[in-house]
Amino acid sequence: MNPIKSWRSLMSKKSGLSDGGKSSFKIKQLPFMAFVLTVMLFIVYRTTMYQYQQEELDKKWNFWGESKAYSSSFGKLRGLPRGIIHANSDLELRPLWLRSGSRSKLSVYSNRNLLAVPVGIKQKQNVDAMVKKFLPENFTIILFHYDGNVNEWENLAWSSKAIHIVAQNQTKWWFAKRFLHPDIVSVYDYIFLWDEDLGVEHFSPSRYVRIVKEEGLEISQPALDPNSTEIHHRITIRARTKKFHRRVYERRGSTKCSEASEGPPCTGFVEGMAPVFSRSAWYCTWHLIQNDLVHGWGMDMKLGYCAQGDRTRNVGVVDREYVVHKGIQTLGGSGHDTTKVSKLKKTTTRQGIDVRSEIRRQSTWELEIFKERWNQAVADDKHWVDPFKGSGQRRKRRWHSVQRSS
């Protein structure tokens, strides 16, 4: 036998075995790679589903319909599972205990509204009449006691059903900024933030709510009886033949209002004494309230920006349900020029300081500060566009063309 041929034959067999081994190894790798790929696809699927579920949870929890930035706050809550977190609260009183048969029943609040009023003991009788109107009609009542006197309210039958908050010599807007945070009042359809000196003999809360819902009024107020002691703006006076109105027409005085008028105080305006806010409008308004400007002067002219759209449509005064503004001054007095003005006695301290005059000066100063802050904010925010700037010019042009044609 030729030794060279035998050697070549042997090498050829070895080479064949070697190639077969490599092919066999590759075939064995395929199931492993398929398994790894399946695991990776499963991980991607689970991650995507988790992100989707978190987005759905955010939408579900977000009662206000706004996109909330959980990125910064969620880090502080990483120790908790998401399902246990309650982002909102309410102002509903809870019993200390329940009967065993009632413990499993969850409280569901629907069509519920909130009345919040700053009160002093001198207005006890008027506030009593007001609360008796609201409490039976599915309203939660919260009273802000600015004079520190709570005990003398306890003899009223409804006192234990209301929430009482005490802070000496604080204003309505101070209380609202601190105790009516949107996350606290998100269960309420409408927030009534009223003064204490309003007569409600001709007012029905349930009928009022029905009207604002039907007409789509995000911000509103009841009209004022023409015989009210104080009337600051003509648009708030009751029109006897109307259900509600959104604008006023005035050709006399310094402020002339016509169909061409696009903003306050001719249209898109309510006054600070008796505003009513929808849930969404209050979310915006709460952020408009300046924490350190407690008298709220100037805000009424800007509330239309919180009307969730066209302020000439979404802001209105309800005539069918109206109130009487009694103009009783118990926390410093009014600094507005009024159509009808009561004669007010001065309130002085032992040091001879006229308290009402000082508060009027403070309110006037805060008004100027608020105007400056608004103008500065507009100048600084390059992305903000005034939603009413262009529409006003177009409305004026249409009105002038109608006038010429007629």
From TrEMBL:
Keywords: Membrane, Transmembrane, Transmembrane helix
UniProt feature, compositional bias: Low complexity: 9-21
TM annotation in the entry: 32-52
InterPro entries: DUF707 (IPR007877)
Region annotation Disordered: where it falls in the sequence: 1-21, 385-406
Ranges annotated as biased composition (Basic residues): 392-406
The keyword Phosphoprotein belongs to this UniProt entry's keyword annotation: no
Protein name per the record: Lysine ketoglutarate reductase trans-splicing-like protein
Species per Swiss-Prot/TrEMBL record: Lupinus albus
Organism lineage string: Eukaryota, Viridiplantae, Streptophyta, Embryophyta, Tracheophyta
